[in-house]
Amino acid sequence: MSVICIANQKGGVGKTTTAVALADGIAEHKKRVLLVDWDPQSSLTVSLGFRPEVLKNTVYDSLAAIIRGKKTPALRDAILTTGNPNIDLVPANIELSQAQLDLVGALSREMVLKDMLDSVRSSYDYIVIDCLPSLGLLTINALCAADELIIPLQADYLAMKGLALLLDTVIHVKDRLNHGLKISGILFTMTSPRTLHSKEVMDITRKAFGDRIRVFEAVIPISVRFKEAPAAGQSILTYAPKSEGAAAYRLLTKEVLK
Questions:
Q1: pLDDT for position 193
Q2: CB neighbours of 162 closer than 8 A, spacing ≥ 6?
Q3: Are 180 and 147 a contacting pair, CB within 8 Å?
Q4: DSSP tag of 120
Q5: Residue numbers of the chain with a pLDDT score lower than 70
Q6: How many C-alpha atoms does 130 have within 13 Å on its Cβ side?
Q7: How much is the pLDDT for 27?
Q8: 225: domain CATH number?
Protein backbone atom coordinates (compact mmCIF):
# COMPACT_ATOMS: atom_id res chain seq x y z
CA MET A 1 0.00 0.00 0.00
CA SER A 2 1.39 3.41 -0.93
CA VAL A 3 0.36 7.02 -0.31
CA ILE A 4 1.29 9.28 -3.23
CA CYS A 5 1.38 13.05 -2.82
CA ILE A 6 1.14 15.21 -5.95
CA ALA A 7 2.55 18.63 -5.12
CA ASN A 8 4.06 21.80 -6.52
CA GLN A 9 3.69 25.25 -4.97
CA LYS A 10 3.09 26.69 -8.44
CA GLY A 11 -0.51 26.64 -9.60
CA GLY A 12 -1.74 25.52 -12.99
CA VAL A 13 0.86 22.81 -13.58
CA GLY A 14 -1.55 19.87 -13.88
CA LYS A 15 -1.66 18.50 -10.33
CA THR A 16 -5.38 17.70 -10.40
CA THR A 17 -5.27 16.35 -13.95
CA THR A 18 -2.40 14.09 -12.89
CA ALA A 19 -4.18 12.90 -9.73
CA VAL A 20 -7.35 11.92 -11.61
CA ALA A 21 -5.52 10.29 -14.53
CA LEU A 22 -3.09 8.40 -12.32
CA ALA A 23 -5.94 7.06 -10.18
CA ASP A 24 -7.75 5.91 -13.31
CA GLY A 25 -4.56 4.32 -14.65
CA ILE A 26 -3.96 2.45 -11.40
CA ALA A 27 -7.62 1.35 -11.33
CA GLU A 28 -7.16 -0.16 -14.82
CA HIS A 29 -4.70 -2.53 -13.12
CA LYS A 30 -7.53 -3.72 -10.82
CA LYS A 31 -6.24 -1.87 -7.76
CA ARG A 32 -8.31 0.15 -5.29
CA VAL A 33 -7.53 3.87 -5.11
CA LEU A 34 -8.62 6.62 -2.72
CA LEU A 35 -8.33 10.16 -4.07
CA VAL A 36 -7.98 12.90 -1.46
CA ASP A 37 -8.84 16.48 -2.41
CA TRP A 38 -6.47 18.55 -0.25
CA ASP A 39 -7.14 21.90 -1.89
CA PRO A 40 -9.77 24.48 -0.81
CA GLN A 41 -10.36 25.24 -4.50
CA SER A 42 -11.77 21.67 -4.68
CA SER A 43 -10.76 21.20 -8.32
CA LEU A 44 -10.47 17.44 -7.84
CA THR A 45 -13.97 17.22 -6.37
CA VAL A 46 -15.41 19.23 -9.26
CA SER A 47 -13.44 17.22 -11.83
CA LEU A 48 -15.17 14.06 -10.66
CA GLY A 49 -18.62 15.58 -11.08
CA PHE A 50 -19.47 16.64 -7.51
CA ARG A 51 -20.70 20.03 -6.27
CA PRO A 52 -18.53 21.00 -3.28
CA GLU A 53 -20.99 23.54 -1.89
CA VAL A 54 -23.74 20.96 -1.24
CA LEU A 55 -21.62 18.25 0.39
CA LYS A 56 -22.44 17.43 4.02
CA ASN A 57 -19.10 15.86 4.90
CA THR A 58 -15.70 16.81 3.47
CA VAL A 59 -12.07 16.29 4.40
CA TYR A 60 -12.23 19.46 6.51
CA ASP A 61 -14.94 18.06 8.80
CA SER A 62 -12.72 15.09 9.65
CA LEU A 63 -9.67 17.31 10.14
CA ALA A 64 -11.59 19.66 12.44
CA ALA A 65 -12.88 16.72 14.49
CA ILE A 66 -9.36 15.38 15.07
CA ILE A 67 -8.06 18.80 16.07
CA ARG A 68 -10.92 19.17 18.59
CA GLY A 69 -10.37 15.68 19.99
CA LYS A 70 -13.62 14.25 18.62
CA LYS A 71 -14.10 10.86 16.95
CA THR A 72 -16.78 11.98 14.50
CA PRO A 73 -17.12 12.75 11.73
CA ALA A 74 -14.33 10.35 10.77
CA LEU A 75 -12.61 10.42 7.39
CA ARG A 76 -14.58 7.34 6.37
CA ASP A 77 -17.80 9.35 6.76
CA ALA A 78 -16.68 11.73 4.00
CA ILE A 79 -15.73 9.10 1.41
CA LEU A 80 -17.77 9.21 -1.81
CA THR A 81 -18.02 6.55 -4.49
CA THR A 82 -17.24 7.65 -8.04
CA GLY A 83 -18.21 6.38 -11.47
CA ASN A 84 -15.30 3.93 -11.26
CA PRO A 85 -15.89 1.09 -8.76
CA ASN A 86 -12.17 0.98 -7.97
CA ILE A 87 -11.88 4.70 -7.13
CA ASP A 88 -13.28 6.52 -4.09
CA LEU A 89 -12.98 10.22 -3.24
CA VAL A 90 -12.55 12.28 -0.10
CA PRO A 91 -13.93 15.63 -1.29
CA ALA A 92 -13.06 19.18 -0.26
CA ASN A 93 -14.71 22.57 -0.38
CA ILE A 94 -13.82 26.14 0.55
CA GLU A 95 -14.03 25.30 4.28
CA LEU A 96 -10.61 23.65 3.96
CA SER A 97 -9.08 27.14 3.73
CA GLN A 98 -9.84 27.47 7.45
CA ALA A 99 -7.56 24.50 8.15
CA GLN A 100 -4.40 26.59 7.77
CA LEU A 101 -5.46 28.56 10.86
CA ASP A 102 -6.82 25.55 12.75
CA LEU A 103 -3.56 23.65 12.35
CA VAL A 104 -1.35 26.41 13.77
CA GLY A 105 -2.27 25.60 17.35
CA ALA A 106 -2.89 21.88 16.91
CA LEU A 107 -0.91 19.20 18.72
CA SER A 108 1.44 17.39 16.27
CA ARG A 109 0.06 19.75 13.66
CA GLU A 110 2.13 18.29 10.80
CA MET A 111 0.73 14.79 11.36
CA VAL A 112 -3.03 15.38 11.33
CA LEU A 113 -3.60 14.15 7.76
CA LYS A 114 -1.44 11.09 8.40
CA ASP A 115 -3.63 10.19 11.39
CA MET A 116 -6.73 10.65 9.25
CA LEU A 117 -5.44 8.40 6.46
CA ASP A 118 -4.19 5.69 8.83
CA SER A 119 -7.82 4.87 9.61
CA VAL A 120 -8.57 3.88 5.98
CA ARG A 121 -5.20 2.71 4.62
CA SER A 122 -6.05 -0.97 4.86
CA SER A 123 -9.03 -0.54 2.49
CA TYR A 124 -6.97 0.67 -0.49
CA ASP A 125 -3.92 -0.25 -2.56
CA TYR A 126 -3.07 3.40 -3.23
CA ILE A 127 -4.03 6.76 -1.78
CA VAL A 128 -3.41 9.79 -4.03
CA ILE A 129 -3.39 13.27 -2.46
CA ASP A 130 -3.99 16.29 -4.69
CA CYS A 131 -2.31 19.25 -2.97
CA LEU A 132 -3.02 22.95 -3.10
CA PRO A 133 -0.45 25.30 -4.73
CA SER A 134 1.31 26.29 -1.52
CA LEU A 135 4.11 25.24 0.81
CA GLY A 136 2.09 25.92 3.96
CA LEU A 137 0.87 23.58 6.68
CA LEU A 138 -1.59 21.74 4.45
CA THR A 139 1.15 20.72 2.02
CA ILE A 140 3.49 19.86 4.92
CA ASN A 141 0.74 17.56 6.24
CA ALA A 142 0.47 15.87 2.85
CA LEU A 143 4.24 15.34 2.67
CA CYS A 144 4.23 13.88 6.19
CA ALA A 145 1.42 11.49 5.27
CA ALA A 146 2.97 10.36 1.99
CA ASP A 147 5.29 7.52 1.08
CA GLU A 148 6.24 9.13 -2.22
CA LEU A 149 5.97 12.44 -4.04
CA ILE A 150 5.28 13.17 -7.70
CA ILE A 151 6.17 16.70 -8.84
CA PRO A 152 4.28 17.90 -11.93
CA LEU A 153 6.46 20.48 -13.66
CA GLN A 154 5.51 22.64 -16.59
CA ALA A 155 8.25 22.72 -19.23
CA ASP A 156 8.82 26.40 -18.59
CA TYR A 157 11.95 28.18 -17.33
CA LEU A 158 10.28 30.05 -14.43
CA ALA A 159 8.47 26.90 -13.28
CA MET A 160 11.79 25.04 -13.26
CA LYS A 161 13.44 27.78 -11.17
CA GLY A 162 10.73 27.39 -8.50
CA LEU A 163 11.49 23.69 -8.18
CA ALA A 164 14.43 24.33 -5.82
CA LEU A 165 12.12 25.83 -3.19
CA LEU A 166 9.88 22.76 -3.21
CA LEU A 167 12.88 20.44 -2.98
CA ASP A 168 14.20 22.37 0.04
CA THR A 169 10.84 21.82 1.77
CA VAL A 170 10.88 18.12 0.89
CA ILE A 171 14.39 17.72 2.32
CA HIS A 172 13.30 19.47 5.52
CA VAL A 173 10.26 17.20 5.90
CA LYS A 174 12.29 14.07 5.14
CA ASP A 175 15.03 14.97 7.65
CA ARG A 176 12.76 16.01 10.51
CA LEU A 177 9.27 14.62 10.09
CA ASN A 178 8.96 11.77 7.57
CA HIS A 179 12.14 9.79 7.07
CA GLY A 180 10.42 7.39 4.69
CA LEU A 181 9.38 10.05 2.16
CA LYS A 182 10.89 9.60 -1.29
CA ILE A 183 10.58 11.59 -4.48
CA SER A 184 9.05 9.23 -7.02
CA GLY A 185 9.90 11.60 -9.85
CA ILE A 186 9.46 14.83 -11.77
CA LEU A 187 6.68 14.74 -14.36
CA PHE A 188 6.79 17.19 -17.26
CA THR A 189 3.30 18.52 -18.00
CA MET A 190 1.79 20.91 -20.54
CA THR A 191 4.70 20.38 -22.89
CA SER A 192 5.14 21.26 -26.53
CA PRO A 193 8.00 18.90 -27.38
CA ARG A 194 8.37 20.48 -30.80
CA THR A 195 9.22 23.91 -29.35
CA LEU A 196 12.84 24.77 -28.62
CA HIS A 197 11.99 26.28 -25.21
CA SER A 198 10.32 23.10 -23.92
CA LYS A 199 13.21 20.97 -25.13
CA GLU A 200 15.75 23.26 -23.47
CA VAL A 201 13.91 23.29 -20.14
CA MET A 202 13.56 19.49 -20.13
CA ASP A 203 17.24 19.06 -20.99
CA ILE A 204 18.36 21.50 -18.28
CA THR A 205 16.15 19.82 -15.67
CA ARG A 206 17.43 16.36 -16.52
CA LYS A 207 21.03 17.55 -16.33
CA ALA A 208 20.44 19.39 -13.04
CA PHE A 209 18.41 16.73 -11.22
CA GLY A 210 18.60 13.53 -13.27
CA ASP A 211 21.42 11.98 -11.24
CA ARG A 212 19.53 12.50 -7.94
CA ILE A 213 15.84 12.53 -8.87
CA ARG A 214 14.09 10.43 -11.46
CA VAL A 215 12.56 12.35 -14.34
CA PHE A 216 9.68 10.26 -15.67
CA GLU A 217 9.86 9.08 -19.27
CA ALA A 218 6.18 10.01 -19.59
CA VAL A 219 5.79 13.56 -20.88
CA ILE A 220 2.30 15.08 -20.77
CA PRO A 221 1.45 17.14 -23.86
CA ILE A 222 -0.65 20.28 -24.14
CA SER A 223 -4.13 19.30 -25.30
CA VAL A 224 -7.60 20.81 -25.25
CA ARG A 225 -8.84 17.36 -24.19
CA PHE A 226 -7.47 18.01 -20.69
CA LYS A 227 -9.84 20.99 -20.35
CA GLU A 228 -12.82 19.09 -21.73
CA ALA A 229 -12.49 16.00 -19.52
CA PRO A 230 -13.31 17.66 -16.12
CA ALA A 231 -16.45 19.21 -17.61
CA ALA A 232 -17.57 15.65 -18.36
CA GLY A 233 -16.61 14.49 -14.85
CA GLN A 234 -14.00 12.11 -16.28
CA SER A 235 -10.27 11.63 -16.50
CA ILE A 236 -8.46 11.84 -19.83
CA LEU A 237 -8.24 8.03 -19.82
CA THR A 238 -12.01 7.60 -20.02
CA TYR A 239 -12.87 10.82 -21.88
CA ALA A 240 -10.33 10.39 -24.68
CA PRO A 241 -8.84 6.91 -24.16
CA LYS A 242 -6.96 6.83 -27.47
CA SER A 243 -5.50 10.34 -27.18
CA GLU A 244 -1.82 11.20 -26.85
CA GLY A 245 -2.51 12.49 -23.32
CA ALA A 246 -4.12 9.22 -22.24
CA ALA A 247 -1.15 7.26 -23.60
CA ALA A 248 1.25 9.49 -21.66
CA TYR A 249 -0.62 8.95 -18.39
CA ARG A 250 -0.77 5.19 -18.96
CA LEU A 251 3.01 5.25 -19.34
CA LEU A 252 3.28 7.25 -16.11
CA THR A 253 1.08 4.66 -14.38
CA LYS A 254 3.41 1.85 -15.45
CA GLU A 255 6.43 3.79 -14.18
CA VAL A 256 4.73 4.43 -10.82
CA LEU A 257 3.58 0.82 -10.40
CA LYS A 258 7.12 -0.42 -11.06
A1: 67
A2: 8, 9, 10
A3: yes
A4: T
A5: 193, 210
A6: 33
A7: 98
A8: 3.40.50.300
